Amino acid sequence: MEEAIPGQRASRDFRSKFPDDVFEENLSGLLWFGAECLAAGSNILNRECQSASIRPLAKAVTRSLETVRCLLREQCLRNPREYPAPLCHALHTFDRLFAEFELSYVGAMVPIQSAQEYHLQQEVVVLFSETLQWAVDARLVDRDMVDAYDPALMFTIPRLAIVAGLVLFPEGPLDVEHRPPLHLSQLYRPFYSLLRKIGKLLHGLSPQELRCLEKSLCQVQDKGQEGDQVVHHLFVCIAGVADQLQTNFATEMRHILKQVFAMNALPSHPREEQPDDHPYWP
């Protein structure tokens, strides 16, 4: 299909909604096995209703592939270097059906974000990215840490993002003063009331106290400045919320941080490792 219909492939943009672990195995092989099983009358375990709804699509996929096979076999006997119109049409039809089946089948197996939730999560990606850029400019984070994918940043960025989202970018995804809980990303929805309290306390800090808090949040092992009760209390609350994100939404946070590093790490620094390869990343 890459040779015969390179500019007519069906869109796979929906894959951006899939959890990362979906792509850890041979997805195409798994999808084809699922299509054959469903077409033969089998059901996805504990998902009988979903199986019945996508079975007609599975049958259409298997029939379409059989058509492609027959046309390819005939064309190989004529001229294997040409792709006549009937073959290209059959390939295009199969590609479209297989893409539709992929979305339906994966959606039946794992939860997929709605369009609204995906948009809210992308807002968090932007917030994290802007937070990282601000932290580098404010010399809270070294540029070398970003380019080296320092594992400490997976704690630092979510912590500083709470401060940035409530103070520097108050109309962003952490706008708890004007947005109802349902208009916040699912990551922060459980902490809605706490974020409102944190925001009020942050706006009551002096510039020196705020700077002290920001520096403390950048230290993974730091317990906060116990000398100032308000700053220490804010450190505990902010670090608690940010660290719970790593536990409660590990997959989502991994996906978000990968995008943030992809946008901010300088390409002029060649690396052999990627975030997926680092043993400290969840």
Give the number of helices. Answer: 10
Tally of domains:
2
Average pLDDT metric: 88
Return the string of H and E elements: HHHHHHHHHH
- Rg, please? 25 Å
Helix content: 55-70%
Number of strands: 0
Distance between the termini: 36 Å
pLDDT under 50 segments (min length 5)? Answer: 277-282
In this structure, how is the largest beta sheet organized? none
Structural class: mainly alpha
**What is the beta-strand fraction?**
under 5%
Spatial shape? elongated
InterPro entries: LST-2 (IPR051118)
Protein name: GK17111
Organism: Ornithodoros moubata
Structural descriptors:
elongated, 10 helices, 282 residues, single chain, 2 domains
Short structural summary:
This is GK17111. With 282 residues, the chain is an all-alpha fold.
Would you give an account of this structure?
The two termini are 36 Å apart. The protein has 10 helices and no strands. Helices cover 61% and strands 0% of the residues. The protein folds into 2 domains: 13-109, no CATH class; 115-277. Helix 6 packs across helix 9 (229-248) and helix 7 (192-203) packs antiparallel against helix 9 (229-248).
Topology:
Blueprint (H helix, E strand, L loop, with lengths): L26 H13 L8 H31 L6 H25 L5 H23 L5 H5 L5 H16 L23 H12 L3 H11 L11 H20 L1 H15 L18
Helix pairs in contact: 1-2, 2-3, 4-6, 4-10, 6-7, 6-9, 7-9, 8-9, 9-10
